[in-house]
Amino acid sequence: MKEQKVDTRQRKISNIRFNKVLFTSILVCGIFISGIFYLWIYHGLRYGYEAERPSTETFETVSTEETITQEFIAREYYLKGIEFVFINLAEDGNGELDFRVLDSDGRIKANSEIAISSVTAGEWEFIPLMGRLKAGESYILEISAKDCSIPPYVLAREKGTVGENTVLTASGAETSLELLNAYGFAVSASRLERLLITVMLAVCLFGLWIFWNNEKWTAICKQNAWVKQIKDGIAAVLLVVQFVFMIPDIIYVLENTGFDPSWRYFLNVVNGTDLKFGRDIYFTYGPLGYLFYLMKLPGNTIEYWSGIVIWGIIFLFHLWMLLQLYRLYQKGKIHFWAITASVCCYLAGYYAPTRDNYLLYLMILAVVLWAKGAKNIVLIPNLLLLLMFFGKFSTFTSGFAFCILFCIFDVLFRKNWKSIWLFLPGIILMPVCYLVYCPSIKNLFEYVAGILKISSGWMLTMQFDSVLQPSEVRWLIILIACYVLLIIGNLWSNYKSSAAIIASCASMFFLYKYATTRHGLKVGIWLFAMLFSATILSIDWNVFFQKIGQRAKAVRKNQIIYYVCGTAMIMAVGCTGILEAHSLRSSMGYVKETLAAKMYHYTHLGENSIPEELVKENQLPDEILEAIGEHTVTVYPWRNGYGAVYPEWNMVWYPSVQNGNEYIPWLDGIVADWFCSEKASEKILLTNETIDHHIPYLENPLTWEAIRNNYEVEIISDDVCVLTQRKQKIEIEKLEKVGEQISSSNETIVCPENADYVKIHLKLNLKGFIKKWLYHVGTVNMMLDCEDGSRIEGRSVIPNLESGFYLEKVPETLEELKQVINDKASTSIMQIQLDGKGLEDYQENVTIEWYCLQ
């Protein structure tokens, strides 16, 4: 009798379990089918507004006295509005215009009425017409005027043919005119975006199902050997696919002679000179920086092929780590779903991988695998840190911060002091290797301190006021919330495994600053996706997937908490992947193009990195080439890429490489000293350019002063000129302070008559200081009113204002440059005005120092 009761209880439990499996299966399938319908059938995923305005240079007109009808083909699914140009509006403003969009059956899909008084004549007028249409199908637009004293006219144009998509009159007669309008549609998600979101949805729902039914899933895997074989095969394939997509295109082909391509070219030629980073050059990259933009040039054969070998070793490291990852998976230390989610989250945020971020990912992955039990991997993070230190210092800073935090939390959580060996040998080797490269403790200090100073100046000078759109702010908040949720969940379930995901916050913060200061959320997300795929693996998913199925009383008390927390964490991963795919809005065409370019470069390693087309398109006038001749020459402000076009030039490099990197007075002064020294070039190839709408020459006032005193214009041709060293240099005039004043930042600063030079000191307030480190400081513009009535305005480089500048109008053209440098003809600056959003981040009182020439 007792045995019968026990058997009955077991059957009831079995039925409950079956019902749970059935219910969750139906729930998961229902959600997935709903997602498929929304994405692929209903086309519900959309964003933005896109309308192509036709030219209005030549036009006809159509009166709205009678109803205007025109057929059009919907190019997208969601119409937001239509833009028109109206003329001949009644002065009294009476009347209304009625707009309707109808389908082929005459059903109204969208309609809107606007008052004539709200319309501006001769300007593009947006008419809101919200409606869901079917892409590729035909619709009818109707426009009619009501109660107008004078019916307005709408612009049209002659199409040349009567019939298709032309204007019909009220009587239905066809014309050869078509309206000059712009149909504004919300842009539908690309096929790739929808595919990636579908995959992430499937991965998330699969994770939820095996989480809710772990006992059933475990039983299936144990009872069916083929299931385990399929799992193992899928895991292996996913890791191989991730490797193929993740390895970066290490070959860089020079695109033009602009700002970024020029310094990338410099990195590939500097090691062929006697210049040393930290002694002669101060830059955010180091002597191995060329590895991140590897170019095959006529004179860098050894550096190029050694770079290929180094990258080959790095790829072998990656493959070795993937093998260790797969072994940890087979041992049950990394869950199958974790590998699936990791790879899919990376692919969801896929963009052309950058070399520096790839190295950072490998270092984080190595630490994660070490924490999971792969102790034979300890050498890899040390070598990667060493490479980043001499490659790109900002990446090293991010990686070093990660290692320090990981060590701290690993000691706190697991009492494991061995984690210090993940980075300590590399840190010890860094100064040793630098002293081999450049035997000077002083230069080692300046190498590190100089980069940190430049980075600090970058945050104050290279920002944009509007970096994130409102929708992107919401996405960013959601991403941060998801990441915090993963940290909290992992801390609560198994805090001992939480060191890596907490330490990753350091690297994530660097990405956040990079994105919110200048480059935007999209750039931040495609960098984040790679690092996030490694942190997913650090979470102890086995705790959730295994403890749910356990029957110990101590665990059963926490069953509901485990269910809620585990579900939330799986959904956080899925939500992150979906947001990655949606925010990047990538296309299949771009992915194919990226992979094809990478494949081409890897199969054509012997090709020259300077395209013949680039050389042809960047030819300088003959008179410019003759003026340069065999003299030493440098390029100002940044087009060093001309060195690739003319490899025969005797080029020399000033300490900042480009003036756009001189964010602080310290580096501006070093460059100025160089132009005054014997190391200075005999010639300067100068273009009258600036970045971010800076005021030319005043962005680096000390450098400008040195060039003006030591060079004169030799020849001007087109948009370039050649400066040559003066036979007799102008002595630097001593300055005497004649006054100091404190002025409000919003007030116009009137220059005293006896002043020749000014220094302006702006200090961050508390709000600005916080924004500098947690977001970004706003920009500050400067307007200079001159004695001749002209005005110079542009963005100011705030830190360099403390160096001061002469109260003389800076040249705006090359002809004016010649007048200022050669003829000493310049007009005085009479008053200075600061404005811009950034003023609210600085103290209201500005200290101004006035100087005169002795």
Mind explaining what this structure looks like?
The chain is an alpha+beta fold. Helix content is 48%, strand content 17%. The strands form 5 sheets. Strands 1, 2, 4, 7, 9, 11 and 12 form a 7-stranded antiparallel sheet that branches. Helix 14 packs antiparallel against helix 15. The chain is globular, with a radius of gyration of 33 Å.
Strand content: 15-25%
With helices defined by DSSP (H or I, 4 residues minimum), what is the helix count? 27
Low-pLDDT runs = none
Broad structural category: alpha+beta
Overall mean pLDDT stands at 91
Q: What radius of gyration results from the CA coordinates? A: 33 Å
Looking at the structure, what is the overall shape?
globular
Write the layout of secondary structure elements.
Elements: H1 2-41, E1 46-50, E2 60-63, E3 68-73, E4 78-87, E5 96-102, E6 108-115, E7 124-132, E8 138-146, E9 153-158, E10 167-168, E11 177-179, E12 182-188, H2 191-212, H3 214-223, H4 225-246, H5 259-269, H6 301-330, H7 336-348, H8 355-372, H9 379-391, H10 393-414, H11 424-437, H12 441-461, H13 470-494, H14 499-519, H15 521-538, H16 541-547, H17 553-556, H18 559-584, H19 588-603, H20 612-617, H21 622-628, E13 632-636, H22 642-645, E14 650-651, H23 665-676, E15 683-687, H24 701-710, E16 711-717, E17 720-725, E18 735-744, E19 749-750, E20 757-761, H25 766-774, E21 781-786, E22 791-795, H26 798-801, E23 805-806, H27 814-821, E24 829-835, E25 845-853
Parallel strand pairs: 13-14, 13-15
Antiparallel strand pairs: 1-12, 2-9, 3-8, 3-10, 4-7, 4-9, 4-12, 5-6, 5-8, 9-11, 15-17, 16-17, 18-25, 19-24, 20-23, 20-25, 21-22, 21-24
Helix pairs in contact: 1-2, 2-3, 2-7, 2-18, 3-4, 4-6, 4-7, 6-8, 7-15, 7-18, 8-9, 8-10, 8-15, 9-10, 9-11, 10-14, 13-18, 14-15, 15-18, 16-18, 23-24
